[in-house]
Amino acid sequence: MRILGIETSCDETAVSIIEATGKWNVDFEYRILGNALLSQTVHSHYGGVFPSLARREHELNLIPLLRKALGEAGMLETGSSSTETIGDILNRENDLRPRALEFLAAHKQPDIDAIAVTHGPGLEPALWVGVNFARALATAWNLPTVPVNHMEGHLILSALAGHNEKYQVSSDKYQTNNNIQFPLLALLISGGHTELVLSPEWMQYELIGQTRDDAVGEAFDKVARMLDLPYPGGPEMDKLAKRARAEGVQSPEQLPRPMIDSDDYDFSFSGLKTAVKRLIEAQPALTDEIRMGIAREFEEACADVLVTKTLHALEEHNVESLVVGGGVSANLYIRGRLAESIKEYGLSTRLLVPPRELATDNALMIVLAGYFRALRKEFAEPETIRANGNLKLR
Ligand code: KG4
Ligand code: ZN
Asked: Among 15, 35, 222, 303, which residue carries the largest CB count within 10 Å?
């Protein structure tokens, strides 16, 4: 099966095409035919993602990315596709509509079997662009459509392309893990989510814990902003904290480890963020050394809480595989701490972390989850697909 996937839930616009065979538990194999992604840079001035700006960027980027992905797949052929009713489907996408119509009128239908698209969770204005674009392509090419949950995308990609390595080296080949053992626990950590999800079997989920306020990635971004680091702050904090550890620089004060001893799997990061604010205000000047120390202490506080809760869940549920996904799973320190703790506790759990460049949002994760859903024939009529900012895993 050849599937084209579209991701527009936040500030990455992405299109991927894969060819996949087998089932999720037997002989699964895939090949990336085309993979195109643009990270929106407009938001860096604001220190956060602006939904209306994200929406417009998605509208401008989708056709160039589709062209690139199809080109890589050798499927960009001149000719023409049907454009009937496409203008109606894209009637609110004023920047995308003319570009899509022009593209379809000038290109043949590619050799693709289905279209997968993120329909949530995420920023609704951003999600709608991808959803309506998928509906337009599915209608023009008369293809089945698979709506995909973004968090399931992170989970499935980390499970399939993840490695049990402390420091993942980038590679352009993503080997496939077959024979993944269940129960599986997913630690999903991103800009919008912090969740522990127990999975007894492929594509069955039980949410056992989540953040009560900010997501951990959001806290990283906000603290980075307080330390005058550019957006997105997570990767910058990662580097600064690493330097602090290498140079033995400490924070002037310890930060709290919110909810670390609570009797559940929930998290809270907003108090930690406030504690950083107070700590900064108490300093006579925000020197480079203090910034480094705070980045380190903040990262260690987050890691302590994430690792403690995750390890409890591994033990309580006799988990065979721990899958870590979402943008924050790119964090080297957090990956390392998880790997060390599994060893320290003497657990046999297999740790699967994604290649770093696939930890943050991309369309490969959407097309992989889409393939699994397509195998179960979970198609939706294009006109029935809705963007849902609060979509839950089921
Ligand atoms: O999964 P993702 O790309 O988007 C959402 O679905 O939210 O996650 C983005 C988040 C941002 O908050 C970003 O700062 C954080 O992941 N992030 C990191 C690192 N790389 C990205 N946080 C900590 N350390 C990193 N290396
Ligand atoms: Zn994400």
From this structure: 15
